[in-house]
Write a structure and sequence with these properties.
Elements: H1 15-26, H2 39-45, H3 49-67, H4 73-87, H5 91-105, H6 109-117, H7 123-143, H8 147-167, H9 176-182, H10 186-227, H11 235-254
Helix pairs in contact: 1-2, 2-9, 3-4, 3-8, 3-10, 4-7, 5-6, 5-7, 5-11, 7-11, 8-10, 8-11, 10-11
Length: about 260
């Protein structure tokens, strides 16, 4: 999630528009609704984030199954990873790189936030992005044809965005992330959590619930670490938490094999 300074209509909108807002904001999904989303719609879009994650996982799983008919497992894993990045416009990967640059490249909270706002990527960010893609690739290979992590990693990663937005303070005074934060509440988190938990249980049973719990613990610890360095979370940090949570899901499922 990157911050955006564009003005938004303040009220109104529809429930279905909120679902489209989630898909259009988080993926390359074509702009079905060709108008700025209202602040209320952006807030309610949080409830649909797990659906976006499940749809992403379904596309990745379908691509994996098709590609295995023609290519070596290493090639399949690489192509699926490329598709994963393309489908999300590298949105969260960019957030991870900016977060790493800011948190580890500045000496004061103000300087860290300033670095994160800079669109140029520094050494910390490049290394973090490269290592994350490498680890994701290896874990895709290690998980082989297991359908569960491919479905659940994007789903749980998008649910993490909802948890981060609703539960933790925002570090900036403006931006799209701040707008979504201001118009979010516990109802959105409850709906998103119910959707995510039902999907996790149906797809992976008890082990899925263990993985889900481990991700929650990770997010709480990561948010605690971040708030020791800056006064709250940002859109970039939301993206970083999503990416790292996806890696954790893939890692824990690889332990089953």
């Amino acid at each position: 999630m990157r911050d955006d300074q564009g003005a938004l209509p303040r009220q109104g909108g529809s429930g279905i528009a909120s679902v489209f807002a989630a898909f259009q904001f988080l993926t390359i999904f074509p702009p079905v609704i060709r108008r700025p989303f209202t602040e209320r719609e952006l807030g309610w879009s949080l409830a649909s984030y797990p659906l976006v994650g499940l749809a992403l996982g379904g596309v990745l799983l379908g691509a994996y199954q098709v590609l295995t008919r023609w290519f070596d497992p290493l090639v399949v894993a690489a192509l699926v990873l490329v598709l994963w990045v393309l489908l999300t416009r590298a949105l969260h990967l960019d957030g991870l790189m900016d977060t790493t640059d800011g948190l580890f490249g500045g000496w004061t909270p103000e300087r860290r936030l300033e670095i994160m706002r800079d669109h140029q990527v520094g050494a910390f960010g490049v290394v973090a992005g490269a290592l994350l893609l490498l680890v994701k690739f290896v874990l895709l290979v290690a998980n082989g044809g297991n359908f569960m992590p491919l479905l659940l990693a994007p789903l749980i990663g998008r649910w993490v965005l909802v948890l981060a937005v609703v539960e933790f303070p925002y570090a900036r005074n403006q931006g799209k992330g701040k707008t979504i934060k201001d118009y979010s509440n516990w109802i959105h988190l409850v709906i998103a959590s119910l959707l995510a938990l039902v999907a996790v249980w149906l797809i992976a049973g008890w082990w899925g619930m263990v993985v889900f719990s481990a991700v929650v613990l990770f997010v709480l610890l990561a948010a605690w670490f971040v708030q020791r360095r800056i006064p709250g979370l940002t859109g970039d940090i939301y993206g970083a938490l999503c990416e790292l949570s996806e890696v954790l899901v893939l890692l824990l499922f690889s332990a089953m094999i």
